Amino acid sequence: MASLFGKILGGLALAAAAGGAVFWFITAPKPLPESAFAGLSIPDTVNGERLFWAGGCVSCHAPKGAAEKGDLTLSGGEPLKTPFGTFYPPNITADPDAGIGSWSLAQFGNAMLRGVDDEGEHLYPAFPYGSYSRMKPQDIADLFEFLKTLPKSNKASAEHALAFPYSIRRLLGGWQFLYLNAKPRVELASVDEKVARGQYLVEGPGHCGECHTPRDSMGGFLSGKWLAGAPNPEGGKGRIPNITPGGELASWSETDIASYLETGMTPDFDSVGGSMVEVQKNMAHLPASDREAIAAYLKAIPAVK
Amino acid sequence: MKLKTVFAATLALSVVAGAVGAAEAPQVVRKDMMEGMGKAMGGLVNIVKGKTEYNADVVKASLTTMVDTMKTFPDQFPAGSETGHKTEASPKIWQNMDDFKAKAAKLGTDASALLAALPADKAAVGAAVKTLGADCGACHETYRLKD
Q: What is the DSSP pairing of strand A85-87 with strand A230-231?
């Protein structure tokens, strides 16, 4: 993810240079009111668990390898290294002091949908809320309730180790002003229920674009290149593949794609690798219908060469 | 049935052939080895998916391929073979050779254990595919970079 943050943070420096009142207004956190999360149904933890796996929370917020051993304590995950410093995904267990146990639904919702924490400060987009912003409030409530069923930990979160000026959270408002919204990533001509579900999962909780879409110099997604593949975020050798029908997936059937997400095996029996391994393990926990919906959506989006 | 036995035999042979062609560039040898792994995995996955019937010979041949390949696979990464021949090997292999070898050994050990117990039906092959697939993924996660 290194170059991603490079771009985002480079953009921030630019925004800071703009200065003045406009800057102050643009960068102010814009949380949703409590009412955005009022009037929802009683939370459904089964659906919450589904979103938990779709969202891949465990991949960032739990120590490496813990999930395979059945340990879903979200006590904080592996450091995410970038050229600007290191992010430490925090403890998000229900512990009231070390985790988010004292947060209200609206506070949690604002972290997920607006990238604003319980104290009203901006969160770094290393936490992929730029995608989660598309999630439905009811799904947020269900996910929140499910998280409360997981084990607590009183392990204190580590401070991110970021160089100045990237350490100033306020600057993130500039990035959010430019890129944070809940609009669809692609307009599809005809969308049946299955494709619509796939669109929701891929563009929202699944945050597939965070890796598979190339970015401009400010860290925003390049237009017309949705899921068209991107350089290795760690720099150097390798590429994140194009998963539009214009890439290698052209020769995969929907069943092939769904099966890859379930088992990690490509149609020619190559095995999944790189950062997709964690994603695939999470996808394997979804109901088959969700994997099929994702496959249908990937076949329906514009082909990019 | 006969045909499947022949297929199984071919699988086993192709591994031997892979090991013999040592005069080739290591990048090519290791890719061939991995293609053999793909085919071996395919033999198992096809049973799980119901594309082919359960056949003990196919299962045996696939697992044997994995055991044998993992013995020599890590030797195909000598200094100087980091690039070239469109290799997808990650530079991390040469930084953590011991861990890389351990990942190969893990698959070898798991495949040996499965071979000894020999999965006796489709469901058992399914469980084997899960274990083995996780081993492939654990190595590819860190040491293979798709291009």
A: unpaired
